[in-house]
Amino acid sequence: MLKLLTGALSVEQVQIPIADLPPQLDGLRLVQLSDFHFDGIRLSSAMLDQAIATCNAAQPDLILLTGDFITDNPQPIHNLAPRLQALTSRSGTFAVLGNHDIRYQHSRAEVAQALQAVGVEVLWNQVVYPVGSGLAIVGLADYWSSEFDPAAVLNAIPATTPRLVLSHNPDTAEILQRWRVDLQLSGHTHGGQVYFPGIGNMAHHVSAFYRGLPKPAKRWIPLLKACASTMKHWEWAQGLHHFGTNQLYVNRGLGTYLPGRINCPPEVTVITLVRSAATHPAP
Ligand SMILES: [Fe+2]
Does residue 1 lie within any of the structural domains? Predict the structure, then answer.
């Protein structure tokens, strides 16, 4: 297997205040895993095993998977899904699909069915209440599919009920500002993969450079185009971001693309929800 520079797996511990969180859900523990790209090249079996063990050691209430299980052909999902069966939690594993999981016409059904078969519930513009009616878990269709449709599902949730929203692509946070989203969990960016302190993630700079180029020049640099078209808001490439009362957390993912990662290690996120003193303002 091609050995990509990734850095050691990093565990990020995050505490998120949630308005209107019922007292019995105070301290609810979630683990987020994202962007596996488990195709024999971009994520090693050893690191996948380590991520699963780290997740289980956190003894989560819920496990949330935010897409890009595979890269191109969906076949590798049949290697990944049985391994994900080892994930353990009190109230279940929930997932959304990413742009790579729906790349070909047959991909979406093949990836979703393989995950469902091992007990991972795949959400596509759906809401579930695995820890009770006091917390909604929403999973959206991928932003780049023609079916991304947050309105119906978010409008169906009572205004006073806090909600987590799984959405693979963090650019959706811009649209989701129209709704109450206590916490959006996303991936897709791999954190930008190359990060220099004081400078930031290189994908952000490369994209800004590309967008500033005159049109004829753009045609000659497809790699820069790929970077610029992956994300609009590269400044949200990792970590926690706030939009009024909405919160977005972006996981750096587990899989790695060329040229590898610098100062941007693969991530397992352990999130603890705590009751916020504030109640959410009425819409
Ligand atoms: Fe993606």
Answer: no
Is residue 61 in some structural domain? yes
Cα(206) to centroid of ligand 1, in Å?
Answer: 18
Residue 272 CA to residue 268 CA, distance in Å, equals 13
Residue 135 inside a domain? The answer is yes
Q: What is the mean pLDDT of each run of 10 residues along the chain (283 residues)?
A: 77 98 98 95 95 98 98 97 98 98 96 98 98 98 97 97 98 98 97 86 84 77 74 94 97 93 95 88 57
The answer to whether residue 105 sits within a structural domain is yes
- Report CA(187)–ligand 1 centroid distance (Å): 7
Ligand 1 centroid to Cα of residue 158, in Å, is: 30
Ligand 1 centre and the CA of 23: distance in Å?
35
Q: 108: closest CA among 67, 79, 164?
A: 67
Instruction: Give the predicted TM-score (pTM) of the model.
Output: 0.93
Which residues make beta-bridge pairs with 201? 195
